[in-house]
Design brief:
The complex is a heterodimer. Chain A is α+β, with helices and mostly antiparallel strands. Chain A is about 50% helix and about 15% strand. Chain A folds into 2 domains: about 70 residues, no CATH class; about 90 residues, no CATH class. In chain A, strands 2-1-3-4-5 form a 5-stranded mixed β-sheet. In chain A, a hairpin with a 2-residue loop joins strand 3 and strand 4. By secondary structure, chain B is mostly helical. Chain B has one domain. The chains are: A alpha+beta, B mainly alpha. Chains A and B meet through strand 1, helix 5, strand 3 and helix 6 of A and helix 1 and helix 2 of B.
Chain lengths: ~180, ~210
């Protein structure tokens, strides 16, 4: 088992932390007498996630009867969670669950691994997003463009400068502000 | 035979004892009578004394009551007389005071009006002098103001106006910016927002942000 796909269980960093701590609670109870994994898991995460996790166990050939195997697998999941990369996105709107799923799936499809999302809302961006990952920051929002247009409109414009601005807005790349 | 003197002696002793007892009882009865007499006498005297004291007490009370009545009657009479005399004296006093007050008021009014007239005359002359000086001062200051302070004031006013206009422009800019941001933000649908976010991710991938 090389990489485990945990995107069905969590999308954001906060969700991942919560999932990891609940999973640790389940791990602690594994060797207790009369421990039932399915009951414990459904109690912590609900029926839907329990079913998904059961299919994940089956996919990874883990049998519920072997407690030590289950424990090792859960420990591996916890380790995987802590090693998942985090991308900080600043958005101009409150994303719905569908949007978050779509963003998470984009990373799985394009980067071939799960990224944990750390979402911040800043309505001043107007639209688009700023991306912060691996110490790199890039601003792909339309705020700067908007501010420039507004300045041009409010101050006496010269026609050439407006045309220049319109041309530059069409294929404006996001600029990497800095590397931290 | 030896019993006979003994019997005689015994009988004599008995008779003596009997006589003694009779005498003693008679004496006791007599004393009792004497005591009874004395007791009645004392009782009579006691009642006499008590009756005496009661009659004297009544007399004293009657005398005291009649004297008190006399005193009250005379006091009322004095009070009534005094009140009338005091009222008359007060009436006379009030009349005198009124007369004096009227005279004093007349004197005060006449002296005050004459003082006022005098003061008015003097004040008017002084006032005219002061007004002339004020007018001259004012003309001098107006000229000074026109020559020196007015240009400076105009300059300061212009600078202030410029500053306020600049502030107003900045504030307007901020308001328009904020309002436009909010309007644009709200006018873009969720799907369009999502699409723009996806475009941003694509651009970030191209620039190697995720590597």
């Amino acid at each position: 088992m090389d990489s485990i796909d945990l995107s069905a269980f969590f999308i954001t960093k906060a969700q991942a932390t919560d999932f990891s701590s609940r999973l640790s609670a389940v791990v602690e109870k594994i060797f207790e007498t009369n421990f039932n994994f399915e009951d414990a898991f459904s109690k912590e995460f609900g029926m839907k996630k329990k079913d998904t996790f059961m299919s994940l166990l089956r996919t990874n050939n883990i049998t519920l009867q072997a407690d030590s195997e289950v424990k090792n697998f859960l420990d591996k999941i916890i380790t995987t969670i802590s090693s998942l990369p985090v991308v900080s996105l600043t958005l101009a709107f409150e994303p719905s669950d569908q949007t978050l799923i779509a963003i998470s799936q984009w990373f799985v499809m394009n980067m071939h691994k799960q990224f944990l999302l750390d979402i911040t809302i800043d309505k001043k961006l107007i639209a688009g997003a700023t991306v912060n990952c691996n110490g790199k920051h890039a601003d792909f929002s339309i705020r700067l463009l908007f501010e420039n247009i507004l300045k041009e409109m409010l101050s006496p414009p010269s026609s050439s400068s407006v045309e220049q601005l319109q041309h530059s807005s069409h294929d404006q790349p996001g600029h990497i502000v800095g590397v931290t | 035979m030896p019993n006979l003197p003994f019997q005689i002696i015994t009988t004599t002793a008995d008779i003596a004892v009997f006589v003694f007892v009779i005498y003693y009882l008679w004496r006791v009865h007599k004393k009792e009578k004497t005591l009874e007499k004395k007791e009645n006498k004392v009782d009579t005297q006691y009642h006499q004394i008590v009756d005496d004291a009661l009659s004297r007490e009544r007399k004293i009370l009657e005398d005291a009551t009649s004297e008190a009545d006399q005193i009250i009657t005379s006091a009322e009479y004095v009070n009534k007389n005094s009140t009338e005399e005091v009222n008359q004296a007060l009436h006379v006093l009030v009349t005198d005071i009124e007369k004096e007050a009227v005279e004093t008021a007349k004197e005060f009014t006449s002296s005050y009006s004459s003082s006022l007239k005098q003061l008015t005359g003097e004040s008017l002359t002084e006032f005219q002098t002061i007004i002339k000086e004020l007018v001259a001062d004012l003309q001098r200051q107006t000229l000074e103001f026109r020559q020196t302070m007015l240009p400076q004031l105009e300059k300061e006013l212009e600078a202030y106006k410029e500053n306020r206009m600049k502030q107003a422009d900045e504030l307007t800019m901020k308001i328009i910016q904020k309002a436009s941001q909010d309007i644009f933000n709200k006018s873009i649908s969720s799907d369009d927002h999502q699409k723009l976010v996806m475009d941003s991710l694509e651009k970030a991938k191209k620039e190697g942000v995720f590597e």
